[in-house]
Specification:
heterodimer, A: 111 residues, mainly beta, 7-stranded mixed beta sheet, B: 112 residues, 6-stranded mixed beta sheet, globular
Chain lengths: 111, 112
Amino acid sequence: NAGVTQTPKFQVLKTGQSMTLQCAQDMNHEYMSWYRQDPGMGLRLIHYSVGAGITDQGEVPNGYNVSRSTTEDFPLRLLSAAPSQTSVYFCAAQGPVGEQFFGPGTRLTVL
Amino acid sequence: QQQVKQSPQSLIVQKGGISIINCAYENTAFDYFPWYQQFPGKGPALLIAIRPDVSEKKEGRFTISFNKSAKQFSLHIMDSQPGDSATYFCAASMRPGNQFYFGTGTSLTVIP
């Protein structure tokens, strides 16, 4: 039982490049989220999904897209990377009583 | 606008001492208040959580105190150990399936 997995662990992009951060869970939880973590700012919600085919914006959605075609997978797409998107990204799946299970994170640097 | 305000930003405690981290919120619709622990290079992990129908919850050395009238809750770590050195986040949400709002984190260092 792997829980929540994320790939890649590290990524360096040039400004303007696009990429997809992968997230998968094997707990069959409906609710999944993407957060970014920046020093002194805690975890900020980018996008979330309450189930396959349903997504919505969080606090900081600009520059990011998501889709949810299956319960297991919730990829995050950076459309045109900017230095302001340098951050650590965490994917999470939420259990039935509200507990969140986080992945190990992706550290992204945009040059 | 920060939905959940956390203090202090950093905390240094001697081994065996008590670590106290505080959080405050404004939205009275919040009804789930978890604390997460994060070690360097790892994702946050749920430590302990409370709902507003109780004023205190204890799990081992970790206790949440909840003051509904003051809209505040705090994490107490008794007999703090060097292995407790980590970043701690408080959070709040309205019900399962709703958005979580996190505090800005507290970096705890426990010195031997």
